[in-house]
């Protein structure tokens, strides 16, 4: 196993977490605008 594969996997996980967080914030904003009530 190459030594940089671990860093690559960590980078992929971090990127996915960042994207999920962004999608969550966008989804919460959409629900807030649609219903006028903040979803938990």
TrEMBL record:
Superkingdom of origin organism: Bacteria
Entry protein name = Uncharacterized protein
């Amino acid at each position: 196993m190459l030594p940089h594969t671990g860093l690559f996997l960590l980078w992929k996980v971090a990127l996915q977490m960042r994207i999920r967080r962004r999608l969550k914030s966008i989804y919460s904003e959409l629900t807030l605008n649609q219903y006028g009530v903040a979803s938990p």
